[in-house]
Structure to design on (217 residues):
């Protein structure tokens, strides 16, 4: 019986390849307006910068000295407007300084600092709280103020150092003004407690630095 020959695999027909799928071309998307390349703006001349104003020079050293002068004029303005009956009247309760004694203290503390800053220099005479008159007080305040004015001026011109006081001339200036102002408040309060308050005009006048600064020494 004849044997069947096996089929030759090479003789099999080739498998059909799937047909290529046709792709549709997508329509072009419009470019957003924001993404569009801006047109080149025509060249323009640069804007002119506004003219700057230069502040006038301000001399701080001179301003501090003027303020120190005004502060002492306020002291004398206060003394000038006190009632005579209040000047040496005992404080309520009999304890504490009289107004005359407070003014003498202001002057004498200035002498203490004059001695500390210039031990060999000339200094005004101290005041006696028990015999001091208002006229004597006003004249003495001028002398002690003028001497301290010179101390401040020298310090401002020589690096800001004050012998015997730290940190510097700015602190010394503030100390002196604060000390005077503290005792002005005491005097105004004591005058009221004694039933001899300062006139309303004087109470406001002590705060008018521009007016007091224009007063003559």
């Amino acid at each position: 019986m004849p044997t069947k020959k096996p089929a030759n695999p090479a003789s099999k027909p080739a498998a059909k390849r799937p047909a290529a799928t046709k792709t549709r071309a997508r329509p072009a998307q419009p470019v957003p307006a924001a993404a569009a390349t801006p047109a080149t703006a025509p060249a323009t001349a640069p804007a002119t910068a506004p003219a700057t104003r230069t502040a006038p020079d301000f001399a701080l050293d001179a301003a501090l000295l003027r303020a120190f002068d005004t502060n002492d004029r306020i002291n004398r303005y206060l003394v000038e407007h006190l009632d005579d009956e209040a000047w040496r009247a005992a404080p309520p309760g009999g304890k504490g300084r009289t107004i005359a004694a407070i003014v003498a203290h202001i002057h004498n503390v200035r002498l203490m600092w004059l001695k500390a800053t210039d031990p060999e220099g000339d200094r005004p005479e101290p005041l006696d709280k028990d015999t001091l008159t208002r006229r004597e007080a006003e004249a003495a305040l001028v002398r002690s103020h003028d001497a301290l004015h010179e101390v401040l001026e020298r310090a401002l011109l020589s690096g800001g150092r004050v012998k015997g006081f730290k940190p510097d001339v700015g602190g010394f200036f503030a100390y002196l003004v604060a000390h005077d102002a503290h005792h002005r408040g005491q005097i105004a309060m004591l005058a009221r407690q004694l039933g001899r308050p300062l006139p309303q005009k004087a109470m406001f006048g002590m705060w008018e630095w521009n007016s007091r600064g224009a007063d003559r020494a």
Summary: The chain is about 50% helix and 0% strand. The two ends are 156 Å apart (CA to CA).
